[in-house]
Design brief:
The complex is a heterodimer of chains A (192) and B (280).
Chain A lengths: L1 H23 L1 E18 L4 E4 L3 E4 L5 E6 L9 E12 L11 E10 L4 E4 L4 E12 L2 E2 L10 E5 L22 E11 L5
Parallel strand pairs in A: 8-11
Antiparallel strand pairs in A: 1-2, 2-3, 6-7, 6-10, 7-8, 8-9, 10-11
Chain B lengths: L1 H45 L8 E6 L2 E8 L2 H13 L5 E8 L2 H7 L13 E2 L2 E2 L1 E11 L4 E4 L3 E4 L5 E6 L9 E12 L19 E10 L4 E4 L4 E3 L5 E4 L2 E3 L9 E5 L10 E6 L7
Parallel strand pairs in B: 2-3, 14-17
Antiparallel strand pairs in B: 1-2, 4-5, 6-7, 7-8, 11-12, 11-16, 12-13, 14-15, 16-17
Helix pairs in contact in B: 1-2
Classes of the chains: A mainly beta (192), B alpha+beta (280).
């Protein structure tokens, strides 16, 4: 009788252990990610968020957490990330730039050797010699540009946009090389 | 006379017993299918983008088949996604055809830089992602002006995310975590297609966001620059819906299951999130 009870207890422990192994499944993988989803659970102690799709993401000092709001409820001063918005205008504090044609974008890759920046939408930005690059109004070197930086590309004029023939051999009719006279870095990812 | 009545009763009983279960099940299925179709149509009607096209919806035992024509691949996928959210839907067969050159050019990859990572087009207009501090807003026109001077319009495809904290999150809440560390992957038997019993060991999987596809070389390029090798045997899916590699769109978030040696191509690509309609 005792041995049967003991056996049952052992079996229960083994099953419990198996279940734990089956649900823990936590392993560290290098590389930060963006994850969008519905929260399944939050562990404040470990700083992890488990999404309903099974992804477990740990919040680090460089991580930002965002929740959706409506335009009606967002308040001036609030930090927002607006996804898939239509660019309308650029009205910087510096009046010197107001009359300049521009294009907004996010940096995908930077190649300082060729003075080229590729935006995340595939647009290639070729910096003209002497092009001014600023971050918070302060000049920076092109080598300081980083992937993820949100930028405004100041264009010299309509003629500065060329065809995509030197960009790609594959068909992407809308992609071209933009000659940049100035680049304003308006936002960059938080440093870890 | 009595014999005839008895025979008639017996005949009716035989028909009732023999046929009723079959007819009842068929009738029940018909009701279920009709309910599913109504549910899908209701979801589509509630979505302004999907409402622009006439989409035919059929259902059979939870399998919904969509057909019709739309202008872009994004809209085709969006409609299938919405249909997948309707109650009673177990899987979606997406036979919607994409017409127009816009969709063709939008799906064309480039050798140099690829398709957009986080921006694209909405009804032909270029869209961008912006992060910053709100200076002013105009809900009437849907415009937001950021403190850095950028002015953007919020469209039906736009989502506004406001900075929050870990402590403020609660189960069931939608969330976007940017630059988070990949900490694990749990199977979830409650969501069809989400269980990954073989993907729990370290190095077996990785998360990422699609940057572009290179069909010629069978490569999936993630936003962080990493390259995922894909073979014809690689399973690409979103929930229970099987996809082809070129159906993947920039900005989609995926979980990639590593190959089992000696294979070199990834075994499975699971789309876990795709951009959806906005919260305006």
């Amino acid at each position: 009788m005792v041995s049967t009870g003991l056996r049952r207890a052992l079996v229960s422990l083994v099953l419990l252990g198996t279940a734990s192994v089956g649900t823990a499944q936590v392993s560290e993988v290098k590389g930060n990610v963006d994850a969008t989803g519905i929260v399944a659970s939050v562990d404040i102690r470990t700083g992890t968020v488990t999404l309903q799709d099974g992804r477990v993401v740990r919040v680090t000092p460089g991580t930002t957490v965002w929740q959706p709001v409506t335009i009606g409820s967002v308040m001036p001063g609030a930090s927002v990330f607006v996804r898939n918005a239509e660019p309308l205008d650029f009205r910087p504090a510096s009046p010197s730039a107001v009359s300049q044609p521009y294009q907004m974008g996010t940096i995908g890759t930077v190649t300082p050797a060729s003075s080229r920046v590729v935006l995340s939408d595939g647009t290639v930005v070729q910096l003209r010699p002497g092009a001014l690059v600023t971050l918070n109004g302060q000049p920076i070197a092109m080598t300081e540009l980083r992937p993820g930086d949100e930028i405004i590309v100041g264009l010299p004029g309509r003629s500065a946009v060329t065809t995509g023939s030197d960009v790609s051999a594959l068909p992407r009719q809308t992609t071209g090389v933009i000659l940049a006279e100035r680049i304003y870095v308006v936002r960059r990812p938080q440093a870890p | 006379m009595r014999t005839r009545v008895t025979a008639l009763i017996v005949a009716v009983l035989i028909v009732a017993v023999g046929a009723s279960p079959g007819h009842a099940r068929t009738f029940g299925q018909m009701i279920d299918d009709a309910t599913t179709v109504a549910s899908v149509k209701g979801k589509l009607a509630a979505d302004r983008l999907s409402n622009l096209w006439e989409i035919d919806v059929k259902a059979s035992e939870g399998v919904v088949t969509l057909s019709g024509k739309v202008d872009t691949a994004e809209h085709r996928d969006r409609i299938a996604q919405i249909a997948g959210w309707a109650s009673g839907v177990k899987s979606v067969v997406n036979n919607i055809q994409v017409t127009g050159a816009e969709a063709t050019s939008a799906k064309a990859p480039t050798a140099d830089s690829g398709r957009p990572t986080t921006s694209g087009t909405t009804n032909g207009a270029t869209t961008i992602d912006v992060t910053g501090s709100v200076a002013t807003k105009d809900p009437a026109t849907g415009t937001l002006t950021l403190a850095d001077g950028r002015v953007v319009r919020v469209t039906d495809a736009t989502t506004i995310w406001q900075s929050g904290t870990l402590q403020a999150l609660s189960p069931g809440a939608p969330v976007l975590i940017r630059d988070g560390a990949q900490a694990g992957l749990e199977g979830d038997a409650s969501r069809p297609g989400a269980s990954r019993p073989g993907a729990s060991r370290p190095g077996d999987w990785r998360m990422g966001t699609v940057r572009r596809i290179v069909p010629a070389t069978g490569e999936l390029i993630l936003a962080d620059g990493s390259v995922v090798n894909v073979s014809p045997t690689t399973v690409v899916k979103r929930g229970t819906e099987r996809l082809t590699l070129d159906a993947l769109q920039p900005g989609w978030e995926v979980v990639v299951k590593a190959p089992a040696p000696p294979e070199t191509a990834t075994a499975e690509i699971d789309v876990v999130w795709a951009p959806t309609a906005s919260v305006r």
